[in-house]
Specification:
two-stranded antiparallel ribbon; Angiotensin-converting enzyme; disordered N terminus; 717 residues; binds zinc ion; disordered C terminus; carboxypeptidase; mainly alpha
Length: 717
């Protein structure tokens, strides 16, 4: 969320850099394989080669095999030369554990018997250790590259990523052989299920390579897009970040914006249509091989709840009345600025006027749409500078927030190893804020070229939210060291930011003095949050609903483009600035589509963070339903151990339980619901109802006519 936490992944600038983080070879292979909540970043300087000491007991004889992965790859003659030999290691271990368990009746039939639950548990534990080591190694390599962008570090990072992918595949293949149905221990079952995910690696080698190649070509097409400046055909080195992003945020000339919009969508869409179709086809094959009906089912399976798709649809319905009011108001303001010719009074909003290439958030046009422009927006930057704030001080205050909740204090290694300020030794690095888990104990770090201002003050708290989550679940086995579902991690960071960004909190920590908060100032604040968080919801929803349709085969190749715009129009009330056809192909113009990254996680995060916030606020005694003095949008959970203890309990579960169990610990609820976010925005909703009536602004929109289906030859069949 750009406003409170600009580091979230839905921000397009910088996003594409993430593609390098784990190496294209492993991307999409094992979806939950990486735990850095990085707005991007990466890297790879592996300081040492991975060495796997394998304790193998054979006939009571202990023997240590140093498993050097590099040697393994280089020499087929080496003792552990292939995945097949992985199997023999498991079997040896199994054999050894049988011996360890007691006298063995050496009957030939025994060695063919399925392993017992205890044996399986021992095997899994052993696998976890090796898996964790490789993952830790990969993470370190990624960190080192992200901290120092050299070719050498890049090659180390890429290699570490490939090594991890290989190990993870071997682990998954091995564990898939176990029949888990009969296991009585539900946690063991879940551990195996998580480690046994093969993902795309279930495809035969040639198809697997083809699929990764298709995704890599879409990503690379996206990353390399370059443009000529508007009205200057000699200046042709403009790219998404920073130029186009900055132009969309700050320029207001419609013809210029339209020009860049068309350039961007043309360059990042149609050229990858063929790759996209290949990707869809192989994605489906992989899903079937993993016993799922489609790629949509694979993604939804991460949410562990058969009703989840319905919950998502319900949220969209719940927020629709508020969204329509906000849409009506913004469209009215745009008409005031640009006139009826450009902006229809009753149609969808031409999206190039909304301050963002994808119109996913509209906060960049808050300067001329804000309800009460004469009122100053809250900003404590000057006060921070006056008081001599430094990046370290900002992190110390974040740490203080968590310890005030009785949560875990940052370990010394965090301070020793993090990069909290931009290094001055001239190296290149990925500066975008990111939080990292190194899969050890107490090794967590942040990389952020922190600047002293209010926006980054909130980002610091958001990133520390990820760090706190890592610390709380670090005792869990490696496959449970993750958020309860893909939306949880981002949500936790934001729960803190929701408190920190209140005037109440800023006053408490001495950053806000003589601040007069009247109703108009409050509406301005809620408006800003609304055009950031609320308008994002239908956008995020569409991005995956569209892909679910494509993966399921409900949306056919001949209608790929117009179906996309039909959905953007239906759910967000926006449309392209020019007429598009099936010769265009616009969905890959969003990074996550080009890069095969699931997007629903951001939607989920934006919804559940308000549920978390409401529960924590109630525990802190800061929120009482119906009490005008204790509202959800003016709550600060600082210093509440009651809220902190409960939050801690939820975080400590990691992903060891289905997410409704985790959510229940903090909120008592087991479903995702828009109730809390609607309650938070209620003052804005009430104001919009009145204001739109006063202005005579039309509410709702007609269907867009901006995509025309002209089937083209190669699609016609
Ligand atoms: Zn984040």
């Amino acid at each position: 969320m750009p406003d409170l936490a600009p580091t979230s992944h839905n921000l397009s600038s910088n996003e594409f850099k993430r593609l390098n983080r784990f190496g294209i070879t492993c991307k999409g292979l094992f979806i939950p394989s990486v735990q850095q909540y990085v707005s991007d970043g990466d890297s790879a300087n592996s300081s040492s080669r991975p060495v796997f000491p394998v304790q193998v007991l054979i006939n009571g004889l202990a023997e240590t095999i140093q498993w050097d992965w590099n040697v393994r790859r280089d020499s087929e003659k080496h003792i552990m030369a292939s995945n097949i030999q992985w199997r023999s290691v498991w079997l040896m271990l199994l054999f050894a554990s049988t011996i360890a368990a007691g006298p063995v009746k050496r009957r030939s039939t025994e060695s063919e018997k399925a392993p017992s639950e205890t044996e399986i548990s021992q095997i899994v534990e052993w696998i976890e250790q090796r898996y964790q080591q490789t993952k830790a190694h990969q993470t370190l390599a990624a960190w080192e590259y992200g901290s120092n962008l050299t070719e050498f570090n890049l090659s180390k990072k890429t290699k570490a990523a490939a090594d991890f992918a290989e190990v993870a595949k071997a682990v998954a293949e091995e564990l898939q052989q176990f029949k888990t149905d009969q296991l009585t221990n539900a946690t063991l079952k879940r551990r195996i299920k998580k480690l046994a995910k093969l993902g795309y690696a279930a495809l035969p080698a040639d198809q697997f390579k083809e699929l990764l190649g298709a995704i890599a070509s879409m990503e690379s097409n996206y990353a390399k897009a370059k443009f000529c400046a508007y009205g200057d055909a000699t200046k042709c080195d403009l790219s998404l970040d920073p130029e186009l992003t900055e132009i969309f945020a700050n320029h207001r000339e419609p013809e210029e914006l339209k020009y860049y919009w068309v350039q961007w969508y043309n360059a990042t869409g149609a050229p990858v249509r063929e790759s996209f179709q290949k990707y869809v086809e192989l994605n489906r094959q992989a899903a079937l091989r993993n016993n799922f009906s489609s790629g949509a089912a694979v993604w939804l399976n991460e949410y562990d709840d058969s009703t989840f798709e319905q919950q998502v649809d319900d949220v969209i319905e719940q927020i629709r009345p508020l969204y329509e009011q906000l849409h009506a108001y913004v469209r009215y303001k745009l008409r005031q600025k640009y006139g009826d010719k450009l902006v229809s009074p009753t149609g969808p909003i031409p999206m190039h006027l909304l301050g963002n290439l994808w119109a996913q958030t509209w906060d960049n046009i808050a300067d001329f749409t804000t309800p009460f422009p004469e009122k100053k927006l809250l900003d404590v930057t000057d006060e921070m500078i006056r008081q001599g704030y430094t990046p370290i001080k900002m992190f110390q205050m974040g740490d203080d927030f968590f310890t005030s909740l009785n949560m875990t204090k940052l370990p010394q290694t965090f301070w020793d190893k993090s990069i909290l300020e931009k290094p001055t030794d001239g190296r290149d690095l990925v500066c975008h804020a990111s939080a990292w888990d190194f899969f050890a104990i107490d090794d967590v770090r942040i990389k952020q070229c922190t600047r002293v201002n209010m926006r980054e003050f909130f980002v610091v708290h958001h990133e520390l939210g990820h760090i706190q989550y890592y610390l709380q679940y670090q005792h869990q086995p490696v496959e449970f060291r993750g958020g309860a579902n893909p939306g949880f991690h981002e949500a936790v960071g934001d729960v803190l930011s929701l408190s920190v960004s209140t005037p109440k909190h800023l006053k408490k920590v001495g950053l806000l003095k003589d601040y007069e908060e009247d109703e108009q100032v409050k509406i301005n604040q809620f408006y800003r949050a609304g055009v950031t968080k609320l308008v994002f919801l239908p956008f995020a929803y569409t991005l995956d609903k569209y892909r679910w349709g494509v993966f399921r085969g409900d949306i056919k190749p001949r209608e790929y483009n117009c179906k996309f715009w039909e959905m953007r129009s239906r759910y967000s009330g926006v449309e392209p600035p020019v007429v598009r056809t099936e010769q265009d192909f616009d969905p890959p113009a969003k990074y996550h589509v080009s890069a095969d990254v699931e997007y629903l996680r951001y939607f989920v995060s934006y919804v559940i963070q308000f549920q978390f916030h409401r529960a924590a606020c109630a525990l802190a005694g800061e929120y009482v339903k119906g009490d005008p003095e204790k509202t959800l949008n003016n709550c600060d959970i600082y210093q509440s151990t009651a809220a902190g203890n409960q939050l801690k309990e939820m975080l400590a579960l990691g992903s060891s339980k289905p997410w409704p169990d985790a959510m229940e610990v903090l909120t008592g609820e087991r479903k995702m619901s828009a109730d809390a976010i609607l309650e938070y925005f209620d003052p804005l909703y009430q104001w919009l109802l009145e204001e739109n009536k006063r202005l005579g602004a039309h509410v709702g929109w007609t269907d867009s006519q901006k995509c025309v289906s002209h089937p083209i030859d190669f699609m016609a069949a």
